[in-house]
Design brief:
cytoplasm, Rossmann fold, 13 strands, 529 residues, Arc Repressor Mutant, subunit A, six-stranded mixed beta sheet, five-stranded parallel beta sheet, binds 6-O-phosphono-beta-D-fructofuranose, alpha/beta
């Protein structure tokens, strides 16, 4: 197509939202009108299903749960008065609690006030808060945020070293819907130990966000933590950012949580409408379907040309891949669905993998995100009639064109700024696009059975380790090779796992396991002295 024809196609298919100052351009996706016609009926069914979901249907059938993240920003739409009330009460509590902290009315044990916030959580209990904090935060925020989002000991040491002498001024927020996630439990215990090492009581610095009566809830109550905030059954981890999970950290950081909610609410309003060309979420879902033949055959590369949106791709990776990456359809057929997501930011990535995008394997489509506002206030030119921000747009449009010339498809999302309202709108846009797409490909977007397999397997590994350690302690000084030890603990078929566990044990001082070299790596002997 010539540039002129592309301009016509751009004008024809541009979806604009004046109230959000937002637009979605699908002109560089090579769908046809026939495709749109073909998708009309499946899309109608997807809308019907979303409508039912918003009314409180059990939209997560195997977990028998409602799916209520849309109610978080429109509590009046929740199907039960009690749900609406708890949403409003929790929001009021978030505001109240943050104000008390900021005003120094809720104070730490020894310091004058809380100035730092350590968040312990993983997956949806970390990614949303991280996205919001990084997108909207700044140097003058009333609290500085840190995260434990893994069970990596060195990672946690590094964070604690950054917190340094300010630990007595640090509020720790432990976030876990289930309240039983091991990584988060470990992070909490490591944090607790750090406070104790400084003679501080953890409970006087700790807040939980978790499900009612979860393990974490009970632990928080037993140890007199400052507070707990609810995480409801009808909110999934990956869609929890506009519940207390994302709102409490954001409010403590001094960010505009009402703006986040308002943006999401407005986007929800627009993405409920059935006229497809006016519904950006429906258009996204259709474009994903078009790009990957409804089977996810092309990866989605998310390229925001804005540093503040660096974590968008990481956030969407969970939202999209945990929602859509499913073995079975709603009817139990094996479908192995999914949509792979990766990306960082432009123009930085032009100096990394964009080379392959233009010339290499053709297995993706790009979503560019353009932010119109460059910075607070004016920019100085870097050369005649051009600022750094002008270059950023230049690189975006240039790359979009260069990819199109090579037949690579792309979507362009344009937003006015990186404000709370815009971010809330982006979050809601993708939540609904995922919901609609899941309906189009007939899968349950709201469970994650695949993740459980890894958790169970990890439990088996730790169980083997316990057996090994008790055997090695019983046979003090004797030990054996991985093969011999696997047999000795009654797990000869697990010799490989036993080998990995022993190598790790011997590399660390914690359990007293040492290693004596053998003639090959597999002849090494392990013992407890
Ligand atoms: O909030 P929780 O229960 O600790 O779960 C954390 C994450 O673990 C998962 O359940 C599985 O990885 C995610 O869906 C979730 O966001």
């Amino acid at each position: 197509m010539s540039q002129r024809e592309l301009w016509e196609r751009y004008k024809r298919y541009l979806c604009v939202s004046p109230s959000l100052g937002f637009s979605l351009d699908i002109s560089r996706m090579k769908f046809t009108e026939a495709f749109l016609d073909r998708m009309r009926e499946p899309l109608k069914q997807a809308f019907d299903a979303m409508e039912e979901l918003e009314k409180g249907a059990i939209a997560n059938p195997d977990e028998k749960r409602q799916v209520g993240h849309y109610w978080l920003r429109a509590s009046e739409l929740s199907p039960e008065a009690g749900i609406g009330r708890s949403i409003r009460d929790t929001l009021a509590d978030v505001h109240w609690f943050a104000e008390e902290i900021h005003a120094g009315r809720i104070v730490p044990q020894t310091a004058e006030r809380f100035t730092q916030l350590l968040i312990v959580g993983i997956g949806g209990s970390a990614l949303g808060p991280q996205l919001v904090a990084d997108a909207l935060g700044g140097a003058s925020d009333p609290m500085k945020l840190f995260f434990f989002d893994n069970t990596d000991p060195d990672g946690m040491d590094r964070v604690l070293a950054q917190v340094g002498d300010k630990l007595p001024e640090t509020l720790t927020l432990v976030i876990s819907k289930s309240g039983g996630t091991k990584e988060t439990r470990n992070g909490m215990l490591e944090a607790e130990r750090a406070y104790k090492a400084r003679g501080l009581e953890f409970g006087a610095h700790a807040v939980a966000i978790t499900g009612d009566n979860s393990e974490l809830d009970r632990y928080a109550k037993k140890n007199s933590w400052l507070r707990t905030f609810p995480m409801w059954d009808w909110i999934g981890g990956r869609t929890s950012v506009l519940s207390a999970v994302g709102l409490l950290p954001a409010r403590l950081q001094g960010l505009d949580v009402d703006g986040l909610l308002a943006g999401a609410r407005e986007m929800d309003r627009q993405t409920r409408q059935r006229e497809v060309m006016r519904n950006p979420a429906a258009l996204l879902a259709l474009m994903w379907f078009h790009a990957g033949d409804g089977r996810g055959t092309r990866d989605m590369v998310i390229l925001p040309y804005k540093d503040r949106l660096l974590l968008l791709s990481k956030y969407l990776q969970q939202l999209v891949m945990e929602s859509l990456g499913k073995e079975l359809s709603l009817d139990g057929q094996v479908v192995n669905q999914g949509l792979a997501v990766y990306g960082n930011k432009g123009s930085t990535d032009q100096h990394a993998y964009v080379q392959q995008l233009r010339e290499g394997v053709h297995n993706f489509f790009v979503t560019f995100v353009e932010v119109l506002k460059d910075r607070q206030g004016p920019s100085q030119p870097v050369e005649e009639d051009a600022t750094s921000g002008d270059y950023l747009v230049g690189f975006l449009l240039g790359t979009r064109r260069a990819l199109y010339e090579k037949d690579r498809e792309s979507i362009l999302l344009t937003v006015p700024d990186v404000s709370a309202r815009t971010l809330g709108a982006l979050i809601a846009l993708y939540e609904r696009a995922v919901g609609l797409y899941a309906q189009l490909v007939h899968i349950n977007a709201y469970h994650q059975p695949g993740v459980e397999a890894g958790k169970k397997a990890a439990g088996t590994v730790l169980e083997l380790q316990r057996k090994l350690l008790s055997h090695l302690r019983a046979k003090k000084g004797q030990g054996g090779t991985a093969d011999a030890l696997a047999t000795a603990i009654g797990a000869p078929d697990e010799a490989e796992t036993v080998f990995h566990v022993l190598e790790h044990l011997a590399a660390n001082p914690d359990h007293g396991v040492t290693r004596t070299e053998g003639s090959s790596p597999f002849d090494a002997r392990y013992q407890v002295a």
